[in-house]
Amino acid sequence: MKPTPVLFIAAVLAACAANPPRNPADLCAIFREKTDWYAGAKQAQRRWGVPIPVQLAIINRESSFVEDARPPRYRLFGFIPLWHLSSAYGYGQVKDDTWDWYQARTHNDDADRDEFADVVDFIGWYVHQSHTQLGIAKHDAYRQYLAYHEGQGGYKRGTHANKVWLLKVARKVAADAGRYQRQLAGCRVGLERDLVEQ
């Protein structure tokens, strides 16, 4: 039986929705391509006070906006794939136990790590926790990323201090957040208008 045109179009649209944005370096282009993402990011900002550019800079670093991203697998004899190196999954590369903690604390039991709106809400919540527990400003993408990567306990113990590679990555996240902030200033009015029209 041949698929109907409607089913074919639906399948194509579903496949497109799962693709990462074509230009991840441009926040305005991301939101123009992924038309429902701005609403989710804005809602997370309103709920947790975490700037949209910080949210997206963390996601860009963690998964390059790939919804079902996973860490590499252990490989037997160098080529037989076994289990993943950790349980990290989705846009935010969130581990199972951390996601369970978020769901329990926010009562958001239906949240999924491969849903953009859920992940920006998680990032908003996590950054808010780091702000409350560690005193890191919510707009401080550099220190917030270090706490995101190491966990609040690790950050407090200074586990990041001698990880030169991680400090370099955190500087890149901060640079991305700064660029996203400048870009957002130029397209926010249009995004708000599009949001009203949706």
UniProtKB/TrEMBL annotation:
UniProt keyword rRNA-binding, yes or no: no
Question: Domain of life here?
Answer: Bacteria
- Give the Transglycosylase SLT domain ranges: 6-187
Its source organism is Methylomagnum ishizawai
InterPro entries in the cross-refs = Lysozyme-like_dom_sf (IPR023346), SLT_4 (IPR045795)
Query: Which residue ranges traverse the bilayer?
Result: none
Q: Which residues form the signal peptide?
A: 1-17
Know the name of this protein? Transglycosylase SLT domain-containing protein
Q: Keywords in UniProt for this one?
A: Signal
